[in-house]
Write a structure and sequence with these properties.
The structure holds 2 protein chains of 2 kinds.
Chain A (H helix, E strand, L loop, with lengths): L1 H19 L4 H18 L3 H18 L4 H30 L1
Chain B lengths: L1 H5 L2 H9 L2 H4 L5 E2 L14 H5 L2 E2 L6 E2 L9 H11 L3 H29 L7 H12 L2 H5 L6 H18 L6 H11 L8 H21 L3 H18 L1 H24 L9 H4 L11 E4 L3 E4 L12 H14 L7 H18 L7 H10 L9 H31 L4 H22 L1 H5 L17 E2 L3 H13 L4 E5 L6 E3 L5 E3 L4 H4 L4 E2 L11 H12 L6 H6 L2 E7 L13 H9 L4 E16 L2 E16 L8 E4 L2 E5 L5 H7 L8 E3 L7 H4 L2 E8 L6 E2 L2 E8 L3 E8 L16 E3 L2 E3 L9 E9 L2 E7 L15 E6 L11 E7 L2 E7 L5 E8 L4 E5 L2 E3 L4 E4 L3 E6 L10 E8 L1 H39 L1
Parallel strand pairs in B: 7-10, 7-11, 15-16, 15-17
Antiparallel strand pairs in B: 1-6, 2-3, 4-5, 8-9, 11-13, 12-13, 14-28, 17-25, 18-19, 19-24, 20-23, 20-25, 21-22, 21-24, 26-27, 27-33, 28-32, 29-30, 29-33, 31-32
The chains are: A mainly alpha, B alpha+beta.
Chain lengths: ~100, ~900
Amino acid sequence: MNKYSLIFVVLVVLFFSVVFKTDSDLVYLFFLLAWLFFSKFKRMDGRYSIAAGLIFLFFCPLVFNIDSLLAQRLACWAFLFFVSGVLLLVCERENRSL
Amino acid sequence: MKYFKKHWPIFIIFLLGLIPLIWFKDGLIITGGDNPIFLNPGSNFFDNYYSWFGKMDTGTPNMFKSLIFPFMFIWFVLGKIGLSVSDIQKIWLFLVTFFMPGIFMYFLVKEFYDLSGKKGIVAGFIASLLYVFNQYVILDILRLRYIFTLLPLLFLVWVRGLKEEKFTIKYCMLFALISGLCASDANNFAFVAPIASIFILYFVFQLFEGKRFVRSTLFFLTTFTFVLLINFWWILSFVVNIISSGSTIFSTLKANAVFLNSTKIHEVFRFMGFWAFREKFYLDQVKLVSYVPYAFRYYQLPLLLTTYLVPFFAFGSMLFVRQRRRKIFFCFVALLGIFLTKGPNPPFGFIYLFLFNKFSFFSAFREPFSKFMSMHLFAIPILVGFFSEDCFDYFQEKFQKKKDLRYYFGRLVILFIVIVILTDGFPLFSGMNIQNEKWYGDKKASLFVKIPDYWQEAKDWFSQNDSKSRVMLSPITYYGYGHSWPLGIKSGEPVARFLIPNPIVRYPPAIVAKSDLLQIIAYQRMIFDSGTDLLPYFDLLAVNYVLQQNDVFPAVNTQVVDPITMGNILKNQRNLKLLESFGKFDYYQMKDQTSNFVGTISGLDIYKINREGLLPLIYQSKSVAYVDAKIEAFSDIFTFLKYDPGSVFIFSKDIQPKDFLMEDYSNVLVSLKNQPLQKKQKEVAYKFELPQAKSYQLLINGYLLQPEFNTDKRKYYLNLSGRSIPLPDESKNNWEQINLGYLKSGEYLLTTNLPVEVIKEEYFTSPIWLLGEVGKNLKKENSSLSFTKINPTKYKVEIEDGKSSYFIVLSESFNSGWKIYQGKEEIAKGNHFMANGFANGWYIGANLLGDGINKKEIIIEYAPQRLDDISMTISLASVGILLLSLLYILVRGKNNKTKINMS
């Protein structure tokens, strides 16, 4: 289930980046919070977020010379997923220590 | 041997650290550009020691004091031992840039596993490799990076200190002592602050993680106190300077924040995003070249891919569960570093912009790339190290039963990571990272430099004859100017700063301080009006010599005149005498992009200023001339006022005239340049005030009376408070002089239909002047002054004091820190004023120094140096105490261990 959620979110964000070409901080914030809530709700391991970030980072060099703005947007998403991954891992540790 | 067998990466790091040696060509120095200091870093050691930096121009408070230790000190000492600058640079690059950071990073990562066991060797090796072979090092190999070198060691001590079961001050002392070795970097607050924040973050992280709140806080506070004490010698003066001139500095920085947006997040992930990396520029305004010729390779395969593999590995380490706690911390630091390095770019760039706009100190981070990169440059190598160790272990476990696969697979993965790191750092191996003659196809732009012998001869001449007097550099030098040396050099600063011992006056840099304005006028008069007598400017700037550098490249667009023309300008000066010439130099002139041999001339010429009696650095005067204008007015003043050596001028736009100044004006000069009061039908009106009753003359700028400006053939008129003054229709003189007779003090209104608008606000000349003169002799009566320069902050002055009052002028930039002492008591406290538009002046009242006409001794001193001396003593005492205590703790610990073993 978690794997499918991850693939679904990655595809949605990729689609969003390619089609809408937005750099809006509101969009970034909305996705970040939504993903964090969803991950907490589904009790997803923080490593799924890290994996999503790695996928976006992997695409960066591939599109770099074709569309550098797209590469920048992908790097933004990678950054946000890494941030959410770290936050989730911190929460997991907190829960475990409790 | 056993030790090295266990820690084999040390040997590889040592070998890789030798790489800089292949860059050097016989006896050459790598210097120039923004780092001309490497011409001889030890040469400015004493100049930077004092709290007043008198080496350049007319002096400033020393903001770069911390450079002296360890940076300048090491070069100074090694130079005294007899090592050449080139040899010291080799040692410096090997140790500071490669070997030491590599070793310290290795031990830091090893510490996270087990310092004595086998675990963590791979992680330590990979982390140390990436820490020294990365884009940041490639881009600016000459950057000062002691803190970068010692950061892993400091962090290792920090981690151990916070980890201790029982609080001891051992690690606090060790941390503080090591921090003292990073002081040289502290002149760049913006570079050091993000690194300091890593320690604070780890402390906070520890508080959240563990239950050692009291111990951790105690450790933090004790260490902070020790760091403060050890570094007190530079922190105090730094804080004082920031308080006194921080707002000016920060507003200047904010106004010049052109690289704020230059770094994008997709570049930051792979340690890139330097503003000039992909940019091009016109070399000598002719040839379009890339700033960094090898940059394009990073946008092609395979480097485009391999550079992204590094962050991929780093964040990939989070997928493995081992070392999770530490990984979370370093991941957090890396992400924070990435976030700040990208500046106001997405995502959430508004946060950076908010900080930049709301907090003035944040303007120090106007180029986020070079300031914040250090954060993830520290964290990502550690994460990649963790990833390598995890991968290695993973394959060891996965192929537990297949010995061959286990052996080869794990090692192949490590080899692949090593190849990726070394590929990314390829310019370091080929020496391509150092700007050479191939970079722009122009040898003068090369960073490989050979200093001609005649510079050494000039240095020796100054050292033997007069190493303290101010030297004015000629021709104009500007940011990025060059010398025609055997291998050329382009420099951000005049090379003379590092090659001769004397204080120098140069054409000011792009960001002009108020005290630089007089220099600008002097240089512009020299170039644009070669007939000008420059003696007044030499006197006001306290210049004793002019150093004509014939080897400077002429450049018309920057007013750098060729050496032949410049030589003629200087030779035509009545008060300049050619004293010495050094070296022979073949001069070629560029014409239609080809260079033609003109002749063999000397490399350097030293001219001495002929003057009688006056010692312009500190002099005494009986009275002052009042000028109702800005300092730029000097450009006009010496065209109509006969210069009298020893004059003092006060500019009403700079200071509020104090009572003691108003007692005895020798001259009154009023410039009518400000925005006129009214403007109707080509008539303008000026309202002004005459401070003293005198006989006045009206001076009309001859430029206004040129026929070309009188297109409607109008009849000029001028009214002074109802009194009509006849004007000529034309003039061939510089100034048209009209006698106004005796005028009382008070307000006046002048109306005229002269075309004053043709002289614009930014011109260094005025349309109209009023000159009130009494013809008083400015020279002192029955008194004389002599002085000895003890150091740049202290002068011993002997005055033959008369019964009447007088003024003393010190031709260093005005600063309230300059004070006069007689014995231990400060005198003339409220009588300090800005003289000559930039210098320090004091009014000495009659009998202030005591009764009787005899020689009196006073001390002119830059008072903040006293505080600096105290702070230096505190720091030295702290170093001594901490070293002895640490030694005692270590010896006692060893003895206790031996006792336990014996029992």
